Amino acid sequence: MGEWKKSGCILCAQNCGLELEIENNRIVKVRGDKDNPRSLGYCCQKGLKIAHYAHNGDRLYYPLKKAGDRHVRISWEQAIGEISEKLLSIKEDHGPKSFAYVGGGNVGGQMEVGIGLRLLGLLGSRYYYSSLAQEFSNVFWVDGRVAGKQGLTSVADAHGADTLVAWGWNGWMSHQEPRTRLLIKEFAENPRKKLLVIDPRLSETAKFADLHLALRPGSDTLLLKAIIRIILEQEWEDKKYLEDHVSGWEEVAQLFSGFEAKRAVEEVCGLNYEDVVETARLIAQTKSCIHQDLGIYMNRNSTLNNYLLHILRAVTGRLAVEGGQIFPAFLYPMGSDSDERHPKTWRTVKHKMFPVLGVFPPAILPDEILHDHPERIRALIVSACNPLRSWPDTLAYEKAFHALELSVCIDIAYTETARLSDYVLPSLSYLESYDTTCFNYSYPEFYFQMRQPVLEPLSPEAKEGSAIILELIKAMGFLPELPDRLYGAGQQGLTSYLGAINAYFLENPQHAKLAPLILAETLGKALGSVNQALIVGLLINSSKGFKAGAAAIGYPPDITMAEKMYQDIVGHPQGLILARFQGDNFQMLHTPDKKLALSIEELFEPLQAATIDKERAELDLPEHYPLILHAGLHHETVANTMLRNPQWNGSRRWATMLMHEADAGNLGLTDGDKAEITTKASTALIEVEISPHAARGCVYIRHGGGLVYEGSKYGVNVNELVQSTDRDEMCTPMHRRIPCRVEAVGE
């Protein structure tokens, strides 16, 4: 028998609590952790297969350097020395805009980002690219305008709702809520609750719905306008809420005057008008929330649709309230405030694109490398991220990596991105290290889990990603020589260390901006982990609201608070509640009047321009590309690119293209046949799967294919079928609307 240890899943942003049985440093059994205060023992198939993440044939054991068409082993000393020297040389020759930092953690851990962004700043650059801008830029931008500051990202409070609207969200397969399948079952079985699904296809979630609106693909804008117009016509709006909590409503209300809701619903959306009226009534007159997903985020009119969703929430009084849409509490925000109206906000050299939440969109990164401007990007550090499979237009990314003067990949596995990089540096897996994420998504209670090592490092040469970047910072001379007393102070406890480091900054105020790095270097040595030191730093520098919430549940409101919280965190590997924020959710807002700023003038014209006739015309597909490819599909058989061994799915069918029976029949295709799918970008051969979950006129290919595992490629890489130009005004890939054609392939 092995030893059971508590941890958390690192395969999606829910980070469900897990218990792992460890025997001979291997995971032999996995179960949900009933002691986890958020997941309560729930986990999905991906979490149960987490051993395939830790134990896989592509694990990295030591640093590598590209030599011709292969990689050779080098020492850490050589790797850090050569990389740091090249970074400084590129900066000196071409300036700070020549460097970008990519990834920096994923759904499993984000402590490295704090160090990676410091490296970026020390080199003078602000070019940070991550998957946050792959699908969420539009909603984050809207959230920032409405809430007064980017970083106040909103989420659905589905567990507190009586009516749940799943708009473009297939929760049964993609989760995104704590204990999602139990939540969906509760809505299906409880007569006092209603589940509404708005999705062109009969998804697995739609099978549980009280009402399924199978709208025409891409017609979400008109449906949203129609629902809002119906609510205003019926006088179902929450007038008191609008008066008390919303600014700018009078301007916004005029934008819906005269809109022909019935005509839009029936002629363009293809829905029964009475069903839409009932949907509007339930949203307006019950404790409702709307959970949107990729059907909104990566579809046409994404920015406008996210705005319309917030207007709908505001007009019905369901924004910043329990059971509606809330602004969750954070120990640290998901990103920085990077409002493009500020003159100091950087823009990219080629596309003049601004960041959202401090993050630039991955869809344009190849273009920012592959041009002849003297300030083009020439060097990348890619960490805990696999752009060569996870981001759009793989063919463009391949060209871009070949054009770089320096590419460094920090990862646990020899990924497709690692294969094209000049240097490959082995990091500890998330089950061999300390880390946490910012996906707490709760209010007023603040849940927190520091995942602790449950496995000994597979390789003695592997390091925390944050520690690797810290070594680069030190090698480039950005960290001053530090006194021995700081290294020793951490051994005496955190309160003692705080006294020592505060005294150091009083003596050396010029080094205050380097505080996170000094903490990582000195306290990190005492704790044996840079990530642990960074978590302590977050506790020390937490907001007044967080500290008041921590004091409210019993933590001492003095200098010892951080040490007591940290001791509790270490003593509760299953996670715990660290604070209860005081005041209602509106207190999270950064608007001057603590009201929702609903008037976004830049979107007034697009909202008015989305007329019935214009939308109908734009929904037509080109004759030679009559079908819509959904490039990527949230599904229980998909785990991004983190589970590399295809055996994790066992006998489950996954490397297929889903099609509606009628579409397949028109093309002479049957289940199991091979078909050729063609887009503007490329062509692929794939097996057809006739599925009741496919909408007519659409085909679906799961993401996560095309991986090279132990030298063999399996599945279709759907990002090869997408061009980087298939994007919207925020440079978000339109993965839910890629025009394509499908043809039968003869024997």
UniProtKB/TrEMBL annotation:
Residues 2-58 form the 4Fe-4S Mo/W bis-MGD-type domain. InterPro entries: Asp_de-COase-like_dom_sf, MoPterin_dinucl-bd_dom, Mopterin_OxRdtase, Mopterin_OxRdtase_4Fe-4S_dom, Prok_Mopterin_Oxidored. Belongs to the prokaryotic molybdopterin-containing oxidoreductase family. It comes from Desulfitobacterium hafniense (strain DSM 10664 / DCB-2). GO terms for molecular function: iron-sulfur cluster binding; metal ion binding; molybdopterin cofactor binding; oxidoreductase activity. The lineage of its organism: Bacteria, Bacillati, Bacillota, Clostridia, Eubacteriales. This is Molybdopterin oxidoreductase. Keywords: Iron, Iron-sulfur, Metal-binding. SUPFAM superfamilies: ADC-like, Formate dehydrogenase/DMSO reductase, domains 1-3. PROSITE patterns: 4FE4S_MOW_BIS_MGD (PS51669). SMART domains: Molybdop_Fe4S4 (SM00926). PANTHER family: OXIDOREDUCTASE YYAE-RELATED (PTHR43742:SF6), TRIMETHYLAMINE-N-OXIDE REDUCTASE (PTHR43742). Gene3D superfamilies: 2.40.40.20, 3.40.50.740, ADC-like domains (2.20.25.90), Dimethylsulfoxide Reductase, domain 2 (3.40.228.10).
